[in-house]
Here is the input.
Amino acid sequence: MFGLNKKDSTLLLIVAGLVLLAPFLLNPFPEGSAMAQFNAGYPDLMQRFVIFGIFAIGFNILFGLTGYLSFGHAAFLGVGSYAAMWMFKLFGMNVLPALALSILMSGLFAVVIGYVSLRRSGIYFSILTLAFAMMSYALAYSVLAADMDGPDQQGLLQKGLTGGETGLQLTLDDPRILGQQTAGDGNLPVPSLFGLEMRSASELNVGDWVFTFSAGYYFSAIVMLLSFYLSIRIFRSPFGLVLRSIKSNQQRLSYTGMNPKPYMLAAFVISGMYAGLAGGLMAAMDPLAGPERMFWTASGEVVLMTILGGVGTLIGPVLGAGAIKYMENILSKINSDILHSWFAFLPDGLEDFVVTLIYPFIGKGWHLTLGIIFMLVVIFLPGGLVEGGQRIARAMRRKKQTASDDDTKAKQPAE
Amino acid sequence: MGILEVKDVNKNFGGLKALSNVNLSVAENSVHAIIGPNGAGKSTLLNCLVGKLIPDTGSVMFDGQSVLGRKPHEINQMGISRVFQTPEIFGDLTVFENVMIPCFAKRDGEFRLHAVEGMMNEAEIVEEAERMLIDVNMIDKRHAHSASLSRGDKRRLEMAMCLVQQPKLLLLDEPTAGMARADTNNTIDLLKEIRDKRDITMAIIEHDMHVVFSLAERITVLAQGTPLVEDVPENIKGHPKVQEAYLGEAA
Ligand SMILES: Nc1ncnc2c1ncn2[C@@H]1O[C@H](COP(=O)(O)OP(=O)(O)OP(=O)(O)O)[C@@H](O)[C@H]1O
Ligand SMILES: [Mg+2]
Here is the structure.
C-alpha cells in the first residue's frame, strides 16, 4: 500500500486508526467520575500529542538513523512558530501558507546550523547545536525583540521580530493583506483552513461520557499521519540505508565512495523541517509564539521522547511523545486534595502516610516520576517502550506456542 | 607507466620513519604483492593511497591523476577500493545491506537524495548485490546481522563490498588473515576468477606465502619502510635479502 511493504502498511493503518479514534480512546472514564482525572481526550492535549509526535518523528530521522544527537532542535520549533505567526500577521489566517513558511524557514535555519555543526561529530556536534539553539533563544528573547520601526512609530515591528518575553501575538492592526484584519465580531481572527476554524469543536454526549471532536486536532492528526508516512518512506529508502550506514561506520562509507557530509546535512535539514512544521502547527492551534519554545529544556525534551519510545524505531518517538505529554498534563494536575479523596477509605493515619509517600511524584513533582521511568526504561529496556511491547508480544506468542504444544501432547495418547 | 605510480614517498610518525623513499609501480591488470615483516610499513603505504594518510613528501599517481589531497570518497570514485587489515564493515546492517551500499555508491556517485524511493524499485541493485553474495558464497547469510559474522566471513563480506564496485584497482590488506584453510583457498579461487574475468589490478599485502605465490605476478618486499627488492615470484623465494629481512625479524 502506498509503496510500503505489508508490515509497514499495517503499522500505518493501526496508527491511523488510533489517531482518528483518539477522542474516544483517550476518554475512557465517564465525566464526573473519580477517574475522569485521567482522561486525556480533550483537544488541547490531543493536539499536543500529535504535534510533539511530529517533532519526535523528525528528530528520530536524525538521531535514530545517523546517531548524531542534536541538542538544539527546539530552535527549529521556535523558528517554525515565529514564521507561522508572521504569515498570520502579514497575509491571513489560513494555516496552509503559514505551515509552508514554517517548513521553509526552519529548513533554511537548519542548512546554516547543520553546515557548521556537522563539521564535528559526537559530543562536539551536540554542544554546537546546543550553542546555536541558545543563541537563537537569546536573539528571540532580546536582540530581535528591540523596537525596529523607530521610536516614535507604532508599527508592525514595534516589538521587533519576536515580541521578546511576552511573545509574538496577533493584533487588530496587523495588515493581513489577503484575509480580513478583524473577524466579523470585531475580535481577532483565528487560524483556519479555508474557513474551518482550528478552534471549532463539536461534542458528542453518550450517557455520562463526553467526546470532543476538534477541527484543530483532526487537522494536526492528518498532518502527523502524513509526516509519519513520509518518515517510513525515508527509513526504507536507499537514503535511509546510507544514513544507517553512517551510524554504523562512517569511515567505511567514505572508503566506499559516498560523501557522508551531504547525507548528514540532508538528514539534519529534513529533521529541522519536521521540527519547524511542529512549531508552525503549535502557532496554528494557539496563535502565540514565545522564545521559551527554543529553550534548551525543549530540546532536551524531544531527546527524552525519542529515547523513551525507542530510538531508531518507526513508532517509538510518537509513543515517547505521548507518554511524556500525558504525564506532564495529567500527573501534574493531581494535587494532595485529590490524593486524600482517593485514599479516604484508609484509616486517617495511614491515609496521611500514603499521601505523603505519593505526593512527591505528582503535581510539580511529575518530573521526578518522569525521571524514574526514564531511568528504568534506559536500564531495563534500552530499546524503549517499543522494545517493551516487542517483549510482551514475544512472551505471549511463546505462551500460545506452549499452550498449543500442550494441546497436541494431550491429544496424542488418544490417537 | 603502471596504473599506480608511487614516487619517493616518505612518511614519518614522530621520529619513526614508517616509509622512506618508497617507489612502486603496479602494472595495469596485474596482481602485485607487497610482503614484509610486521611493522614494515605495508598498511601505512596503502593508507597513503586511499587518502587515510597524506605522505610527507613524494607523489602518488593513479590512472594518470594524483590522489594526494583528495578525500577518501573521491579516491574511491576514481576506481580504488580497499579491504582493510581489520574488517571495516557496517556492523549494524545485514550482510545484504552491506553489499547494497557500494552498489549505490557506484551507480549514484558520492551523493544522491533518493529519500522516498522504495527498495523494491531498485531491482538492478538488488540483483547485483545478490549475484555478488552468490559469488562469495554468502547468499545464505544475507539476512544475518553482519557484526555477528566470524572474522573470516567479515573479511569475505568486505571483499564482496569492494568487488561489487568493479574497481580498477583493488587493494587487499591481508585478505585471508583469520580465515580457515578452506576459505582461504576459496578466496584465492575467487580472486583468480575475478582477475581472469575482467580488467582489474590488485595490490595485495599478505603474510600467507601460499596466497602470495598462488596469485602474485610481481612481488615487492618491504622492510623498515624501504623496498628491498622487487621481482617475479620465482626470484623472490630464495632471495638472500628477503631471508635476511624475515630472519632479522625473527631474531
Ligand atoms: N597512525 C599511526 N601513528 C603512529 N604510528 C603508526 C601509525 N600507523 C602505523 N604506525 C607505525 O608505523 C609502522 C608501520 O606500520 P604498518 O601498520 O604500516 O606496518 P605493517 O607492515 O602493515 O605491519 P603488519 O604486518 O603488522 O600489519 C609501525 O611501527 C607502526 O607502529
Ligand atoms: Mg598492516
Notes: The first helix of chain A runs from residue 6 to 20. The first strand of chain A starts at residue 168 and ends at 169. The mean pLDDT of chain A is 91. Chain A has one domain: 6-315.
